[in-house]
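Q&A FORM
Asked by: J.P.
Topic: structure of Protein translocase subunit SecA

PROVIDED:
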Amino acid sequence: MLSGMKKFFKESSKDLKRIDKWVGAVNRLEGEFERCSDQELRRMKERFTNELNAGKNLRELQIEAFAVVREASKRVLKLRPYDVQLMGAFVLNEGAIAQMNTGEGKTLVATLPSYLHALRGKGVHIITANEYLARRDKELMGQIHEYLGLSVGLNISGLNAAEKRAAYAADITYGTATEFGFDYLRDHMVFRREEKVQRGHSFALVDEIDSILIDEARTPLIIAGKSSEGAALYEITAQIMKTFIEDADYEVSIESGSASFTDQGASKIEGAFGIDNLYDLEHQELLHNVSQALKAYVIMKRDVDYIIMDGHISLIDKFTGRVMEGRSFSDGLHQAIEAKEGLEISAENETQASITIQNYFRLYDSMSGMTGSALPSKAEFREIYQLPVIEIPANNPIIRSDERDLIYRDEIGKINQIVKAVKRIHETGRPILIGTTSIEQSEKISVHLGRVKIKHQILHAKTERDEAEIIAKAGRKNEVMLATNMAGRGTDIILDEAVRNLGGLHIIGTERHESNRVDMQLRGRAGRQGDPGTSQFIISLEDALFNYYDREEMDRYLKKIKTDETGLVVGPAPDKFVRKVQETVEQQHQSSRNHSFKLERALNEQSEIIYAMRDEILDLKTERLHAILLEYIEKYIRRLTLKYDQENTDASGPSALIEELSFVLPSLDWQESDFRNGDVQLVEAKAMGALAELKPVLDIYQDDPDWDDQVRAFILHHIDSNWMNHLDEMNGVKEGIGLSGYGQQDPYMLFEREALSRFNLLLNKIESEISVHFLEFMKSNQEDDGAMESDE
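REPLIED BY: S.T.
REPLY: Here is the structure written out as tokens.
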């Protein structure tokens, strides 16, 4: 839907001049609305709604509406939105991304455009980076909306269907991207229209939009069913992997995050299972299993990619350090990790429905977002989402000092310098935030700080429940906090006055991230709203970032470097080299996202067709359901006739056709002798006659209140089961599509062609299965009715 939007902003200085005039207009109304009573402010909702219904658009109302919300904020929260916050609100209202520095009060900014868009009565979704922020913002900022007569809902995991429907029925709904996406998928698995929870996709306002639409874009949302097969096999292969040796039995590609068996490794597996060739087609399932076991063993790292909580594997979002609620690894990888860790093997997931974050947000009629770090990805936002990025000036000048990176040859040199820097700054009383990229790294540095008796707090996925309390203390004198990236988004570190006088918060980054945007967010924890502060990255050439870089180029640079006695790299041009590596890795990830987007485009279009089919079935009453069933059976008969008319030129044609049609119309009295000269058209005519006689039989069920639900469930079951199989097949096809062309052919065109061919087969198969099994379903239903009558 977003692709068709006309964008108002052109990302130029003229935009800011125009917005500044609008801000001035809001300011001129401030005195007028200050004189309004509470009731008069609430009644503005009714007036605005009437004007929208009369034909006005949102832009014509935005100045007055924002003046109303500003006054409500002053009365309810004692907060008056700054002029720059109004500027951000105007950008959001027009469907663009507001780049606003951290600490500029983006959460309050969101209240203005969300109020105005909610007046249309279609629902506004405010997307936050995690459930903690969703709950906090709903409880705090929701007070403004409720004061003005709007309802506010909270959509988080763990709610039942009725609670979710209530959350979505509100004028404004706060929640996380994953929960909104999962609800969309679940809504297309229901068997009754009233079981759905969402009510459309009108307007989404996304906080920390780059984290959600860029960083999470490569991770699809998957609804999975359970299959208990293969638990013992995972345990066996996990034991085999423990005997494997790198380079001898397997090889690892850190850049691509993959591992493969050597000939020796494959031979060991063949010997263990008593087979001749692991790569034979008949051993495809075993190959998949041992490949996932190998990935679990050598690629997936505990306290980096996942943690163990309460005896279960929980995924870690590498960009935020948070637990990814409700997520599990797919294609048996989750079970392989459980086997590796000696945990109980859970039921394996079978994909029932999936959507990427990219495609979910493209469902909205309009969307906007805010972040402190969108500019590095503005081209990608424009290309994928048609969202321009507008930079909003800071309310107060940024006086934070960003010191030059210290780059060490090895990790131990880096850690020694981090501890040294923490000791030096800690002695001044200034608070320190040490940003890490994984739980493993946080805990390693914690050990070293403990050895020099520096008291500190740790914030990561294992301590997420204590986040608010830990963050509240982080700006106090003498505080030292170790945090994964979860502390870099959406959280305020408030400084004591004494701390401001000492120089403010000091940030230490322990690794350069795969994305410079995340580094920007970490730095932005200090120096908010004109506060003093400093930041510095202390990294090493052994950090994870450099594993993604070309190995040969890395080795060439390592041979040339010069270091001092502490291991600090002093040449050649270490800062320039690190920037080059980070930019290269960012480009690789962007290419990966574009690759995923292009492959998913065809599947997304197919899912929309399948979901439209489901929605049509959900809405149909008995007569129309019967018509569709008869239409499916008629099409099936004609396809079979055409098949045998083309394939058989002798008298065997009618015989073979009759045999297949006997599954569809088992009660028909076939007399093959009636059909002479191999004329399959006569067979078709008799089948059509029998089909016509089926209609009055179906009419008997016209007044049966349970019949609709039973037929609907029957049809939806065949749509869903075949769609699941299709998704599995297409996942296999996707794995075979590389970024390079095959025989100078566009791989994406090849994929789309293959996807279309298989999708047409899928549609035919759905209709065929429904046709073949419907009379059997009817017979079963009649028998059940008879059994019930006899019981009575």
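FOLLOW-UP: Residues 1-8, 787-792 have pLDDT under 50 and may be disordered.
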